[in-house]
Design goal:
By secondary structure, the chain is of the alpha/beta class. 40% of the residues lie in helices and 16% in strands. The protein is built from twelve helices and 15 strands. The strands form five sheets. It has a seven-stranded parallel beta sheet, sandwiched between helices. Strands 6-7 form a two-stranded antiparallel ribbon. The chain is globular, with a radius of gyration of 20 Å. Bound molecules: nicotinamide-adenine-dinucleotide (NAD).
Length: 366
């Protein structure tokens, strides 16, 4: 994007701001001068990033359910946003086994509700709908997935996100059409450019979700207990939360550009090749960085089925958005340990979180 692009004064409607990724994105966009209205349920953990980093002081914080059009539609329409980031979801694989219907209602119908509300909100120009790397049909091979690969999903969460992709594609084609005009594509009629964003496991300060490796480790370390780890040999792609968020922001900027139609499609935001590591590697690094007698033990119960290693090919994001991972995994782990340590010490987590965002922004321009 031209350096002249500015978020100052841009009106952004963000679903899921009370969650982990949404909290970081809300603060980042607000720090760049955007006017952000968040729409989400109450935080589902205590502690949580929204409260810890005082994010509500920087944005308009609205609590509501994306499945409820009577609340969602006025919250969107009255704000007259230019950009919508849709991140609200039930994002956990194990929780989706326990509540598949709730997961489909939120992730599929909820996504349709958001896009349907966008359809009736003339101010919107760009939508970034966040799904996941798990939306691909996982053939358990080592070939990285490209955006045109078939969608799928073994478990309810993964398949609900594949469904959200299909819902988004249908809305794009049916209501936000792209007209082929000679050699250039133009957004026709509603002038909404809609893209989907697929990223993998993210890590960073302020995540307290159940059943995720980093929050599980931190909870155990803080309690002085040995942390039980399932499937230590499972290789997963890891990236700091700011990495995909930088991709979502870059994508939105491109969706607001004159050739927006080119970007109204799906994008992968995968980590660097070397940042796919076994769970045990992460646990070892975390215990070493944390110190203070932190430790983990093997949990022999493998739990429910979890997909094997799934690699994303992020060539398109690199070539078209100039996006690439900037933070090495070890540095990302240091950053997140620093974050939780600062929180434990009662530091000003608003300032601390902004400082990590500023440090990351330096990497973007380096
Ligand atoms: N964290 C990851 O590793 C990861 C990886 C890939 C994709 N994602 C995707 O990124 C997005 C954000 O994930 P996260 O890790 O921040 O999750 P999170 O659980 O921390 O936050 C989820 C957010 O969605 C909101 N929400 C849930 N159901 C809602 C409903 N019915 N109505 C309104 N709001 C609702 C919650 O209130 C919360 O604000 C999700 O779409 C998730 O699928 C996350």
């Amino acid at each position: 994007m031209p350096d002249s692009f500015s978020w100052r004064g841009k009106r952004v409607f963000l679903t899921g701001h009370t969650g982990f990724k949404g909290g970081w994105l809300a603060l980042w966009l607000a720090s760049r001068g955007a006017q952000v209205r968040g729409y989400a349920l109450d935080p589902c953990t205590d502690p949580n990033l929204l409260t810890a980093a005082h994010i509500g002081s920087q944005i308009e914080d609205i609590r509501g359910d994306i499945r409820n059009p009577a609340a969602l539609e006025p919250a969107l329409r009255d704000f007259a946003p230019e950009v919508v980031f849709h991140m609200a979801a039930q994002p956990l694989v194990r929780a989706s086994y326990a509540d598949p219907i709730g997961t489909y209602e939120t992730n599929v119908i909820g996504t349709a509700r958001v896009l349907d509300a966008v359809r009736r909100t003339p101010s919107v120009r760009a939508v970034v709908s966040v799904t996941t790397d798990k939306c691909y049909e996982n053939k358990e091979t080592l070939r990285p997935y490209v955006e045109t690969d078939p969608l799928g999903g073994y478990d309810p969460y993964s398949s609900s996100k594949a469904c959200a992709e299909i819902v988004s594609a249908a809305y794009r084609q049916s209501y936000f059409p792209i007209a082929k005009l000679g050699r250039t594509d133009k957004i026709a009629d509603h002038r909404v450019a809609l893209a989907t964003a697929r990223a993998g496991n993210v890590i960073g300060g302020g995540d307290w979700s159940a059943d995720r490796l980093i929050p599980d480790l931190v909870r155990g370390f803080l309690a002085g207990e040995a942390v039980r780890i399932r499937r230590p040999d499972a290789i997963r792609p890891w990236q700091h939360v700011l990495e995909p968020l930088a991709g979502y922001i870059a994508l939105a900027e491109h969706l607001l550009s004159p050739d927006a139609a080119r970007y109204a499609t799906a994008f992968n935001f995968g980590p660097a090749e070397g940042d796919a590591k076994p769970v045990a590697w992460i646990a070892e690094k975390m215990t070493a960085f944390w110190g203070d007698g932190a430790r983990w033990v093997l949990d022999p119960d493998p739990g429910v089925h979890e997909a094997g290693y799934l690699k994303l090919d992020a060539t398109r994001a690199h070539a078209e958005l100039n996006w690439q991972p900037r933070l090495e995994l070890e540095t990302a782990l240091h950053w997140l340990v620093d974050w939780y340590r600062a929180w434990q010490s009662g530091d000003d987590m608003h300032a601390f979180t902004l400082a990590q965002i500023a440090a990351y922004e330096k990497l973007l321009t380096a």
